[in-house]
Amino acid sequence: MAEITLKNLSIEFGSFKAVDDVSLTVKDGEFVVYLGPSGCGKTTTLRCIAGLVKATHGEVLFDGERVNDLTASERNIAMVFQFVSLYPHLTIKENIVFPLKARGIAKSEIARKLDWVTDVFKLGDELRRYPGALPPGARQKVALARAVIRDPAVLLLDEPLSAIDEQFREEMRWELGHLQRQLGVTTIYVTHDQREAMSLADRIVLMNDSRIVQVSQPDRMFFDPVNVFAGQFIGSPSMNLIDLVPVEGGLRLGESEVTLTPERDRLPEWAMASKRPLKLGVRPLNVHLTDDQATGVPLPVDDVFSVGRERFFSFRIGDGIYQGVDKRQSPAGSAGRVHFEPEGLLFFDAATGRRADAEVAA
Question: Mean pLDDT score of the chain, rounded to an integer?
């Protein structure tokens, strides 16, 4: 296994900077997920680690050794792509051992390694079959087995589940996490799917506009985002972002007539004293309807809908529509008092989008 270090990595294609001054260390045996929208630089970073794209500036190190000038075959990495590329004319067994045969590995060693991956990936009943006879999830599992049979120092996965039907994806997600922990191989996984990132990662690397926005454990990414982008990209339904305008006695909610006050809403003193506009970030799970006039603010309820076992409601502030979790079973169109749980409130600087604190608010 290997520790991977990126030092001030930049990758340019002509005048376009696909990756902009990225630095990160992936620990030996860690499962790190690169997450972000299409075009943010996550796949380009992965391909640079693999040796398929050259760095314009900066360094890529494996266990402290610079590998910028090494080819992909010299880096002892294995890579699995979104679309499985198995040989259709070879059996599953022949596909898996193909890399070892190509390297001239002894038959006894090939047999030993095949027994090992067959046991790890539970492929015993499928070795004699051909790729076309397997469902997409099983074919992707074979591609993973072919990748790890070489004992790579690093496993690189580029959206490996995105081409699999939803009914198989949940099962494969669980299997992939289980297999990585069992193998202990350093793994970097690229996806735009936050559910995959949240369920698989030891740490998430969130990227946007060619740069790293935040690196943290999944729960920290959800509850403690560093800026507006991180707050809204993670979570479904997305985080509510509501304008806060400083007025006498508190902070007005956007263009509404409702003002949050320190007595009722238990806002931090520095926020209440802010002289600059802020944005209130609050996840729907921290917004509820209440009959308690002491803790709720009057806002119209536009709609009530269910997502699985959760019942959500939408409410309006000026021209903006926001969401909360309805525990009262309220009818659509009713007037309600909306309660914002104090422990779920986050504050962002309205101008920069970064998390606000007492210094920014002043």
Answer: 89
CATH architecture, domain 240-361? Beta Barrel (2.40)
Whether 130 and 95 have beta carbons less than 8 Å apart is answered as: no
Domain boundaries, the chain: 4-233, 240-361
3-state secondary structure of 254: coil
Amino acid at residue number 226: V
307-310-316-320 Cα dihedral, nearest 10 degrees: -50
> Is the peptide bond prior to 237 cis by the omega test (within 30 degrees of 0)?
yes
pLDDT tens, residue by residue, 41-96: 999 999 999 999 999 999 999 999 999 999 998 999 999 987 778 899 999 999 99
Rounded (10°) CA dihedral 137, 140, 142, 143: 180
Burial (CB < 10 A; 0-12, 13-18, 19+), residue 168, is middle
Distance from C-alpha of 9 to C-alpha of 31, rounded to nearest angstrom: 20
Query: Angle of helix 92-102 relative to helix 107-121, nearest 10 degrees?
Result: 140
Residues 78, 1 contacting (CB under 8 angstroms)? no
- Is the pLDDT assigned to residue 356 strictly greater than 60? yes
Q: Which residue's structure tokens are 């939408």? A: 314
Question: What CATH class does 4-233 carry?
Answer: alpha beta
pLDDT on residue 362: 46
Q: What is the DSSP string of 119-142?
A: HHHT-GGGTTS-GGGS-HHHHHHH
Residue 42 to residue 24: CA distance in whole angstroms: 13
